[in-house]
C-alpha cells in the first residue's frame, strides 16, 4: 500500500484500497486496519457518542445486549477480527469485508452461510447524517449487534433459503421473457420484505414499539423519528401489504411495520417462501426498488449451478 493511499484512509468515496480492489474485480477483501486515519476514527467516535443515548431509549433489548456482547468500541473503528471472535460462538455469524455492492443472490447466499457482507469505509465528518450507500457504522453498529441473537440470525438464514428457492424455480420456466419478468417481481418482493423488516423494522416491546432494523439503529435522526413522530404510520406486519409497498430511499420512512417477535418474523419469511412457490410473488405492484441487470443475473447464474 502506497503512502498516498494510506494517507487518504478509508473514507467512503475516497478510499484507494477499496477502489483498487473493485478495479481488480475483487468482491471479498480484507480490512486494512492500518489505513484508517484519525479522521476516520473521529467519525466513528462522533457517530457512536451521539446515537448511544437514543439506543437506550428506542432500540430493542436484543440489540443492546448485542452491543455489550461484542464489546463494540466507542472510541475507534472496530476491527472485524475482534467482532467475529465474539460473534461466531454465539450464532455462527461472521462479518465479511467487501469492496462494495453485493449482487442480490450473492448477498442472500452469504446470509444463508451466516456471513454478513460488511463495508469497511466510513463516512466523512461532513456527512454524518446521511449517505446514499452503507458504511461500516451502518453495517457494524446497525446490523451486526442483531446477529448475536439466535432467533434473528435464523431469520437471515431463511432469507438466504428464499433466494435459493427463487433461483431454482427459474429452471422450470422455458419462456425467457416470462422467466425474467416473474423473477424480477420475486426479487422486488424479497427486497421490499427485507427493507421493511431487517432494515426498517419495528417490534413490540415492554414500553411499546422499539427498533430492530439496522437502517433505524444506525440513523441518529430517523431512530427517534420512527418511534416518536406522529407523521409515521405504524402497522402490524402484513405480508401482502409489505411485498406490494414501494420503498422510500431518500428520506425518512413514512410507513413502518411492527412484528410481535423474531419467531413471528421467521414464520413470515417462511410464508414468503411458500407464496413464492405458489406463484403469488410473480406480479407484485410496480415501484421501488428497481431491479438491476446485475441483480437479475446473479439469480439466473445461480440457477445454472
Would you mind describing this structure in some detail?
Strand 3 and strand 4 form a beta hairpin. The strands form two sheets. The protein has a four-stranded mixed sheet. The chain has a two-stranded parallel sheet with strand order 1-2. It has a single domain, classed as Phenylalanine Hydroxylase (Orthogonal Bundle). 53% of the residues lie in helices and 9% in strands. The longest helix has 24 residues. With 305 residues, it is an alpha/beta fold. It contains 14 helices and six strands. The two termini are 36 Å apart.
Structural class: alpha/beta
- Counted up, domains total 1
Radius of gyration: 19 Å
Strand content: 5-15%
CATH topology-level name: Phenylalanine Hydroxylase
Shape: globular
Overall helicity: 40-55%
> Helical segment tally?
14
End-to-end gap: 36 Å
